[in-house]
Amino acid sequence: MAKHVIVLSLVALSFGFLAFAFEPSPLQDFCVADSTSSARVNGQACKDPGSVTANDFSFSGLHLPGNTSNPNGSRVTPVSVAQLPGLNTLGISLVRIDYAPWGINPPHTHPRATEILTVIEGSLQVGFVTSNPNNAQITNTLHKGDVFVFPVGLVHFQRNVGTGNAVAIAALSSQNPGVITIANAVFGSKPEISGDILAKAFQMDKSVVNQLQAKF
Ligand SMILES: *[C@@H]1O[C@H](CO)[C@@H](O)[C@H](O)[C@H]1NC(C)=O
Ligand SMILES: *[C@@H]1O[C@H](CO)[C@@H](O)[C@H](O)[C@H]1NC(C)=O
């Protein structure tokens, strides 16, 4: 009996935790983001529903290729609450990702979202790494029409392994998933993380750390 109580309490606790960890269900039809409001809430304040129009729920231009002329050879075009105010409180958003041949979307994590990605054009190698201590890499090669999921918080990447450009569309389980690009966060923070710390953490010479810090 006592065992049952413990199991039930654990189940109840895990539900409680889920409710805290993810965007709560909306309590109204919509809450279109009011970018002019200075109210500080978890998300953005709601526009007066009387002044809401279809434009608040629309975004155009996702058919346009992103400019991949950069060192990554990729471009992410986001459609999150900043671009589409109607997404406020809804716990969902979208991106288009363009890749030049051999372009990468470098290792990064979304602190607030799981991501489900589908290849529209070309072929991608994708992967994510599980938490410590295993740090197992789960990787696959995707072709047009294939779908892959990156679980919330895990470090992941994509690389174009086809012969031409590649295009993917991904949905994310937050109106504002956030992105932490690992190299930029670690070697490009402002002010920078002390070179001694990074040299020890990465088990490499401080001069290499300095080079990396200069790049990012
Ligand atoms: C793409 O980006 C590069 C580098 O920023 C820039 O030189 C080029 O003009 C851009 N191309 C287009 C079509 O906007
Ligand atoms: C590569 O892409 C990431 C994520 O979009 C961006 O933060 C970073 O600045 C890019 N790096 C370079 C060298 O362009």
TrEMBL record:
The keyword Transmembrane helix does not apply. The keyword Isomerase does not apply. Residues 60-210 form the Cupin type-1 domain. Residues 1-21 form the signal peptide. CDD domains: cupin_OxOx. PROSITE patterns: GERMIN. One of its GO terms (molecular function) is manganese ion binding. GO terms for cellular component: apoplast. Its main location: secreted. Oxalate binds at N105, H110, E115. Disulfide bonds join C31-C46. It comes from the Eukaryota. It is found in: Secreted, Extracellular space, Apoplast. Mn(2+) binds at H108, H110, E115, H156. Keywords: Apoplast, Disulfide bond, Manganese, Metal-binding, Secreted, Signal. Belongs to the germin family. PANTHER family: GERMIN-LIKE PROTEIN SUBFAMILY 3 MEMBER 3. This is Germin-like protein.
